[in-house]
Amino acid sequence: MPASPEQTPLLIVSASGRALAQSALKSGRKVVVLDLFNDMDLRALATASRCVAGRNGKFDARQLLAAAQMLCPPGRCGGLVYGSGFEGRPALLAHLARGRTLLGNSPDTIALLKDPARFFALLDEFNIAHPETRLDPPADVALWLVKRRGGAGGTHVKPARPRHRAGRHRYFQKLQSGRSLSVLFAADGREASVIGCNEQWTAGNGQLAPYRYGGAVSGILLPEHVVARVATMLNHLVAATGLIGLNGLDFILDAAEEPQVLEINPRPTATLDLYDANFADGLFAVHVRACGGELPQVPGLAPARAHAIVYATDAMRVPDDMQWPAWCTDIPENGSFIAGGAPLCSVHAEADTSVQARDLTMDRLRLIGSSFWRKAA
What letter would DSSP give residue 75? Predict the structure, then answer.
């Protein structure tokens, strides 16, 4: 007798798969997870999991496809849900999706939204403001950024230098001042439903990765006209691109309170962590239902939540007797080696206001950094 859909595991593939797996568990679904870390708490959530990281910190395509075939082959896969890691590799996603039901945006949609020439032209079509963006370098690179097409997590964003030339995988964007914000939203191919607005911050690493993602806090309240503007933008973009499932919009709110759009991430984002507790069966279930055309009823008031990624400042080894606080996730195995600059773990906090939640998260980030780690010999 064939397994029922509820018994057949879903395949999750993401740079970090823990949040999606944790949410899927709330809806009673079994999952197989492939990601770049295979952390201890992920292993406890998944039916099976593997690390499929290459030496460059991205998916190793051969490892990924082989692990997917072994642990969740097309004939025994209840569906494929992906997170970050495919922004610059839609062809790899297309290969992975062969024979599996793709619960998310198509590789063609990713290619469209991550192509700066097509994406920013689409924004212009709907009179959506964005920082000046170009494929060739400006004559004066001061106050310009250089970005990698299909990049994610901010590690690819750097100040533009005179040495930077035009390239197939590179584009230039004028530095925009203002508040760095994002919106997590669900889409059904026709319109969008906003889950929540977040403020983001970086965890810069000098000249190597000054705009690397550091964390975010929920509970951000925006003026009514900004909320209405963002909703209108999202509905235009969803209708034009057919976006489905959970997605993220990143933008800068400038001094005139105009949203300056930076990008759309056409997949569940890291801020899923900040809202999952608001939904009885989790945001994973919301994502799956939205892919089928059903938008969620978004709960009203909820606590503010924040998370931050703790990065190793130097190479270190996790103590063998490490006792992890309950507010840590993405936990590496005790005794494992962590390279300098690599993620150590994530820390979380919940409070009545976004300011309180962020402050508590920063306190916990510092506590982990100063008290729980020692340099590797």
Answer: G
Q: What is the pLDDT of residues 95-135, one digit of tens each?
A: 999 999 999 999 999 999 999 999 999 999 999 999 999 99
Same domain, yes or no, for 257 and 121? yes
Same structural domain for residues 67 and 119? no
**71 found inside a domain:** yes
* Residues 197 and 64 grouped into a single domain: no
Tell which of 62, 84, 103 closes a domain: 103
Q: Does 5 map to a domain?
A: no
Residue type, 16: S
Has residue 4 been placed in a domain? no
What is the rounded radius of gyration, in angstroms, for the C-alpha atoms of the chain? 20
Q: Provide the residue count of the chain.
A: 377
For 168-226, give the DSSP string. Answer: TTEEEEE---SEEEEEEEEEESS-EEEEEEEEEEE--BTTTBTT-EEEEE------HHH
Stretch (H or E) spanning 242:
none
Long-range contacts of 200-207 (CB under 8 A, 24+ apart): 200/250, 202/154, 203/308, 203/309, 203/311, 205/311, 205/341, 207/158
Distance, C-alpha 167 to centroid of its chain: 25
Statement to judge: residues 121 and 185 lie in one domain: yes
Residue 367 placed within a domain: yes
Say how far apart CA 324 and CA 57 lie, in whole Å.
25
The 8-class DSSP code of residue 139 comes to S
Sheet (strand 213-217) strand order: 259-265, 244-253, 179-188, 192-202, 213-217, 304-311, 343-351, 328-329
What single-letter DSSP state applies at residue 305? E
Structural domain for 343, as ranges: 304-375
Q: What is the CATH number of the domain that holds 117?
A: 3.30.470.20
pLDDT 10s digits, 309-362 = 999 988 889 988 889 999 999 999 999 999 988 999 999 999 999 999 999 999
